[in-house]
Write a structure and sequence with these properties.
It holds the Pfam family YceI. There is one protein chain. 11% of the residues lie in helices and 55% in strands. The protein has 192 residues and is mostly beta strands. It has an eight-stranded antiparallel β-barrel with strand order 1-4-5-7-8-9-10-11. The longest helix is centred in the N-terminal third of the chain and has 14 residues.
Length: 192
């Protein structure tokens, strides 16, 4: 009787555990981007060219057990070298001292092909909680029979919270660079 009780207890415990599978980022179909208002009238967009992530995704429940990302701050690219160099400087990312920013998921709430990912974002050694909306979550088998997952992460942060404080007041009112930064990340990953 003791053996069967233990076996039943083990079955009940494992039934509640999500069985996530590790995935590798597909760098040629992933983009880590952002958008920020300039002069209060237009959006300046950019992205980061070097990054990696640890992803454990449960294809059955369409949820994440793990999502951790490391982004190389010196790989920022807005299409203008002078601006990129300024963003790498002490006025913004201070890339020499803080070469990486990180995101570590703490929880994920699935809702079909959408969800909410809550976690900690660290920039310049400062960690703050953020919520990212997960949109367009989809899975597919590719031409070689590999399972793939794709999704978009969207969110907003206040750059002042991370000591990215450089700005200039405008003569007619307002500032050169908005405090709000929109995060837009498109991810495609392949099951290991």
């Amino acid at each position: 009787m003791g053996f069967f009780s233990k076996l039943l207890g083990t079955a009940v415990l494992t039934a509640g555990v999500a069985f996530a599978t590790p995935y590798n980022l597909d760098g040629s179909h992933t983009n880590v981007g952002f958008s920020v208002k300039h002069l209060m009238i237009t959006n300046v967009k950019g992205d980061f060219k070097k990054y990696d992530a640890k992803i454990d995704f449960d294809n059955k429940t369409k949820s994440f057990n793990t999502f951790e990302a490391n982004i190389n701050t010196a790989s920022i690219d807005t299409g203008i070298e002078k601006r990129d160099n300024h963003l790498k400087s002490g006025d913004f990312f201070l890339s020499e001292k803080f070469p990486k920013m990180t995101f570590v998921m703490k929880s994920y709430k699935a809702n079909g092909d959408e969800g909410k990912m809550q976690g900690d974002l660290t920039i310049r050694g400062i960690t703050k909680p953020v919520t990212l909306e997960v949109e367009d979550l989809a899975t597919v088998k590719d031409f070689k029979g590999n399972n793939r997952v794709g999704f978009t992460l969207k969110g907003k942060i206040n750059r002042m919270d991370y000591d990215l404080k450089w700005n200039k007041a405008l003569e007619f009112g307002g500032v050169a660079v908005s405090e709000t930064v929109k995060i837009i990340v498109d991810v495609q990953a392949i099951e290991k």
